[in-house]
Structure formats: structure tokens, C-alpha cells
Amino acid sequence: MLVISTVLRSSATKSKCDGFLLETLPPTTAVLTREQGLSYYKTMQTIRRMELKADQLYKQKIIRGFCHLYDGQEACCVGIEAALKHEDHLITSYRDHAFTFTRGVPVKHVLAELTGRRSGCAKGKGGSMHMYTRNFYGGNGIVGAQIPLGAGVAWACKYNGTGGVCVAMHGDGAANQGQIFETYNMAALWKLPCVFICENNRYGMGTSVERAAASTDYYKRGEFIPGLRLDGMDVLCVREATKFAAEYCRAGKGPILLELQTYRFHGHSMSDPGVSYRTREEIQEVKSKSDPITLLKDKMVNKNLSSAEELKEIDVAVKKLIEEAAQFATTDAEPPLEDLANHIYYKEPPFEVRGCHPWIKYKSVC
Question: Long-range CB contacts (< 8 A, 24+ apart) of 304-310?
Fold first, then answer.
């Protein structure tokens, strides 16, 4: 029998954590309890199976429109969330299903949003790219547009004196956007408690970072903002770096920039097979050597925090959860037409909204 207080001490990074404009760096060892390990494993496995189910539903034409999957990047999401406090905020790009789940939305309501059902977290109106919940300001369809919004949330934290921070995330494909550099400037001037995170999954749509950027040192892109570059496939490494960054912001030192080196197993979106600009061999090599779920599993088994059989039981339970969620998401009712004008603005008096014909009008509801 394994003792619940058993801890794992291991290298927090497979390679060194690179720093920029920082006198100290995150610790090179991380402590993982059995309880934490099982929680991280279950959450990452749930995200993985949720995304694979979304892939299946999309190919069955049950999910329509845009759909950007997160499998391969689970350690980023779970590590970040493990380091944040309840009052902290997060905003990300349109690759947002995983964060919607870790921010508190049940899997069935994530999938229901993807299938356009009324029980979805945005009432079936947002779809894959626009999901929201408490302290989570969603996926954003405009490349890089969430970064200035995240700085605004961080400004609200500072103005209201909540002690919270905002994590504002973007991918390497958005890293060359002018609005990001404008935001860095304002955040540094006003010392905003904002953790900027670049999830560098090596390809912006179908273009490798080497072809898209004159400098791929994304953690230095803030120029006057301190930065860290780390292994985004190691959940403990991400957790410790995010904890370090959040504490830096809470101390009133201003913003900080993290680059998480990760990899997406799917293509950019469901319309992208992902093998025209990278080889199948490359994808398989990353899966075999750097799968974040496998890396955590091996650490836990090797350090006797868990057994392979116990983790297999979690796999079975997660699979059952996902199947039940998919059943719910494919049988729940679609939002009624009368709901079309609802939830446009928050706490606004009702007003008329023209329908698809000029003689049809709907009354808005907050």
C-alpha cells in the first residue's frame, strides 16, 4: 500500500530552464505528492480523451465549424492551473477546450457547446472558439487579440487590489502580432500583474517557427520584460515556473513572459491533417519520447507513487466519463430560435433585435 504523503523529488526540467533579465530562476526540483500526481494524471487523461472524442464527433459531422484540439499540450494547461489561486484569471486563444474544463466546466457541457446544444457553457452559441466561465475569458478567434484583453484584466486586478494575477496566453503563431508588443509596453509601464505565456508548439498553422520568426527566443520577445523558457511537456516544470511567475507578479514587480516548449499531436485545426508540413515520423517520435501523460505516468510508477494497474483504472473511469458526456452532448436539445437575441449584453435593459427577416424581431434578455 502506498502512503498518501509519499513525495517525489525529481528534476523540474529535462533541460535547463532558460532565464532572461532574472536574477533567480524557478527551483530545479519539484515535490509531487501521490494525491497531486493522481489528480494531474486524471485531468490530463480527461483532456486527452475529450479532445479525441471531439475529433470523432467532428468527423461524424456532429461538431461543425472551426475546431482546434489540444492533445499533446496537456501538461501546459494542468501545470498552469496547479500553480494558480482561486481568484486568478485566465484568457487564451481559440485552442481553449482544455482550459474551459480545468476552469470548472464539466466535460459534458464542454462537448455540448461543441455540438451547439443549449446546455453548453455558452448556451450553444459560442462553439469551439468561444467558451467562458468564472474568471475565464474564453477562447478568442482573432489571432493574438486575447493578449491586450488579458492586460486589461490584469489592470482590473491591480486597480481593485484583489491580489490576483491574469495569465494571458498565445501561441507561437501569434507571437509576431503588433498588438502583443503594444501590450508588453503598457504592461511594463504600469507594472501589471500579468503572466504572458507563449505556448510554442513549433508550428503556427502550417508554418514552422524557424520559417516564421527571425528570432525563436520567444521568452525574450518582451525585451524589457523578464522571461523564462521551459519544457512544456513536463507538468511539474510548468507548475513550478508558473508558480514562480505568479509570485513575481504578486510582489508588484510587473509582468513576466513564459515560453512553454510543447507540441500538438493534431494539426492546427480539424481541417488540417498536420502531415503536409511535418512528417508522421516526427509526430510519432514526439509521442514516443515526450508525451506528457506518459512522462508523468512513468515518474509515478518508478517512484512507487502509484501502480500501472491503478492508473489503468483511472483510464477506464475517464473513458466511461467521456462516453457518457458525448451521449449527453449529442442528445441534448438545441437552443430554441427565440433564444437568438438573449445574452448579448450583461445587465442591459431589453431591446429589440431584428431577425433573419425584417418583419421578425426578438426581444433581448440578459
Answer: 304/2, 304/6, 305/2, 305/6, 305/8, 305/32, 305/33, 305/34, 305/37, 306/2, 306/34, 306/37, 306/38, 306/41, 307/2, 310/38
